[in-house]
Design a protein that fits this description.
The protein is an alpha/beta fold and 675 residues long. 43% of the residues lie in helices and 13% in strands. The protein starts with 14 loop residues before the first helix and ends with a helix. 50% of the residues are buried.
Length: 675
């Protein structure tokens, strides 16, 4: 291979030599980037460089002038610690520059330690291993569904949405069970546009992979229904052949690339200590000499950039032709309307279902009825349950719209099985892709299994909706393992995450509506197993109140001296208690969403919860931690700060003091103590 000293004759080099030198330049930039920051990962990016370079320079379809072009191939760096590799490739595209590489891992830079989705060219925020695989699979779900929705029924020749979803995964990614859980679903769904490159470099932070893993991933993925290839991950011809085979098979594909950590390094090639650290400067200098590079830092010759960008005119033509096709597609009024809802994200104003005000209705049932109503109005609403359809009341949705399967791409129900964490991460991927609104259901207590994905949804500002039923000890006979105590407050602790605990059927519908409109914030709806009375308040009052996070549902004729703050099923309990204490001026406040309430003006918040002149009492069937902010030092928080018991829920309510007479007594006793 020629060296930098021969760069003047670059145009006459063979393609093979040009590619090998480009790879060497990328490795030089990776080493300099990490060394300059004195922090980061070097070994993994160098072992993955060959595959990533070939993919980006020869196969990845994108618009160099518009990183958000909708029909672009998606590339998810699940091995987020290899960010220096991705940033270098984005520099070759022109979406980042050398100064950005110099700012790697620095305050407010465009090149943070792990990829973040708001950076031009980054499709998903990654770093917590395994989640990128699941999110990439979620993108594959979205692509498959949208491809079917917008394909011409007459001849199926025009596919306005049709692209590949590439994922680069590491040893650590596949060791995280979320990857294999999501992979099982991808195989079950036959997601043929999902292609994973597994950088199998046999080295991790603590040493050789064999210390902790002897899994046969060829057999595992074959068993999941994937197309499997094993190649030399540094051989460009094998990489090209593997990608081309993966593009045409009718199932998801994994390319297992046998690679070497820090491939190309002078003395530290294969050394696991290169995984999470910069190379010593002497090693960098020796490696550059070995690779035919100058010792100059951040060396990027224009010849390499031009070679990398040699197919950009073709890519621009692809995007331009697609744009013209979409103009033709939108001449069809039905397709135009669908495009407006799906791709442009303009949801219709939703009609809310009617509920009988003289009935008791569990909010989980109200969610199911609302889902049935909204699904008719929102054609791109998709989702499902972690094998809890009868409990989450998503069964009607599943029956009406069918399961998403290989033979039914129009199915809108995603049957996830008992896979809460993969479900949540796949929903994130669907939302990242764009074009669909996604939801998922399980028990609130199992939100623990989803939490890493919930957090990542919040970081990425994804409007995913989570239905969490069986929201308190009122679960009853299933006992303490299934009775969430700390979960509501725990979820409220996640920044940029909306937690709704609606008090009745009407509030449930409104909360669902508000969540659907929250494009940049994930939402959780915490719903009752047991029936609660349907409010007699009108929808307009409830909607205005929910949008502000808290509102008054009962107001005395005079200024209140007691203010009850309640959520969920405890709102009706608070109203009952207020009616029992007839010698006090009591205001009852429903607080369905703390997060929305905190966004309101100080004047509004004071109008709901006065700072002075009254005692505040919170009532919620969960831990009391967190309520002190609203009730103050003299207030009373009625909750449950211990695990539950197995018994019918009415017996538990009596046992734990969540019945009107016992709540009344606690309040009066507290008042007496204060006086």
């Amino acid at each position: 291979m020629p060296s930098y000293e021969d760069i003047s004759s670059f145009s006459s080099w063979s393609k093979e030599d040009k590619d090998l030198f480009a790879v060497a330049v990328i490795k030089g930039l990776i080493m300099d980037t990490v060394r300059n920051a004195n922090s980061g990962h070097t070994g993994g990016p160098m072992s993955s460089t060959d595959f990533a370079y070939i993919l980006f320079s020869e196969y990845l379809n994108f618009d160099p002038d518009n990183h958000n072009w909708f029909n672009r191939d998606r590339f998810v760096l699940s091995a987020g610690h290899e960010s220096a590799l991705l940033y270098t490739l984005l520099t070759l595209i022109g979406w980042l520059n050398i100064d950005d590489l110099r700012d790697f891992r620095q305050l407010h830079s465009k090149t943070p330690g792990h990829p973040e989705v708001d950076i031009k060219g980054v499709e998903a925020t990654t770093g917590p291993l395994g989640q990128g695989v699941a999110m990439g699979i979620g993108m594959g779900v979205a692509e498959s569904k949208l491809r079917n929705i917008f394909s011409e029924d007459s001849n199926n020749k025009l596919e306005p949405i049709s692209h590949y979803n590439y994922i680069l995964a590491s040893d650590g990614d596949l060791q995280e069970p979320i990857s294999t859980g999501a992979a099982a679903l991808a195989g079950h769904w036959s997601l043929s546009k999902v292609i994973v490159f597994y950088d199998s470099n046999e080295a991790q932070i603590s040493g050789n992979v064999s210390r902790s893993d002897s899994a046969n991933y060829e057999s595992i993925f074959e068993g999941y229904g994937w197309h499997v290839q094993t190649i030399n991950g540094h051989d460009h011809k094998q990489i090209c052949s593997a990608i081309e085979k993966a593009q045409v098979v009718k199932k998801p594909s994994i390319i297992i690339g046998n690679t070497m950590m820090a491939y190309g390094a002078a003395e530290m090639e294969g050394d696991h200590e290169t995984h999470g650290a910069p190379l010593p400067q002497d090693e960098i200098n020796a490696t550059k000499e070995k690779l035919g590079l100058p010792k100059d830092k951040f060396y990027l010759p224009v010849e390499v950039v031009n070679h990398f960008q040699s197919r950009f005119s073709l890519l621009r033509d692809n995007a331009s032709n697609w744009n013209a096709e979409i103009i033709e597609l939108k001449k069809n009024k039905d397709k135009d309307l669908l495009w407006n809802v799906c791709i442009e994200g303009n949801l219709p104003k939703l009609s809310l279902p009617n509920f009988d005000e003289n009935t008791m209705l569990a909010t989980r049932k109200a969610f199911g009825q609302t889902l049935d109503s909204f699904a008719e109005q929102i054609p791109n609403l998709v989702g499902g349950s972690a094998d809890l359809e009868p409990s989450n009341y998503t069964g009607n949705f599943a029956s009406k719209y069918g399961d998403f399967q290989n033979k039914n791409r129009r199915g809108r129900n995603l049957a996830f099985g008992v896979r809460e964490f993969p479900m949540a991460a796949i929903l994130n991927g669907i939302q990242l892709h764009g074009g669909l609104k996604s939801f998922g259901g399980t028990f609130l207590v199992f939100s623990d299994y989803e939490r890493p994905a919930l957090r990542l949804a919040a970081i990425q500002k994804l409007g995913v909706i989570h239905e969490f039923t069986h929201d308190s000890f009122y679960v009853g006979e299933d006992g303490p393992t299934h009775q969430p105590i700390e979960h509501a407050m725990s979820l409220r602790a996640i920044p940029n995450f909306q937690v709704f605990r609606p008090s009745d059927a009407k509030e449930t519908s409104v909360c669902f509506d508000v969540a659907l409109q929250s494009d940049n914030t994930p939402s959780a709806l915490l719903l009752t197993r047991q029936g609660v009375p349907v409010s007699k308040l009108d929808y307009n009052t409830i909607k205005e109140g929910v949008q502000r996070g808290a509102y008054i549902v009962k107001e005395p004729s005079q200024n209140p001296d007691l203010v009850f703050l309640a959520t969920g099923s405890e709102v009706s309990l608070a109203l009952e208690v207020a009616n029992l204490i007839n010698n006090r001026n009591i205001r009852v406040v429903s607080m369905p969403c703390f997060e929305l309430f905190e966004q309101q003006s100080e004047s509004y918040k004071k109008s709901i919860i006065p700072h002075r002149g009254c005692m505040k009492i919170s009532i919620e069937a969960g831990i009391t931690n967190g309520w002190e902010k609203y009730i103050g030092i003299n207030g009373l928080s009625i909750g449950i700060n211990h695990y539950g018991l197995s018994a019918p829920y009415k017996d538990l309510a009596e046992e734990f003091g969540f019945v009107p007479e016992k709540v009344k007594k606690r309040i009066l006793d507290h008042l007496e103590q204060l006086l």
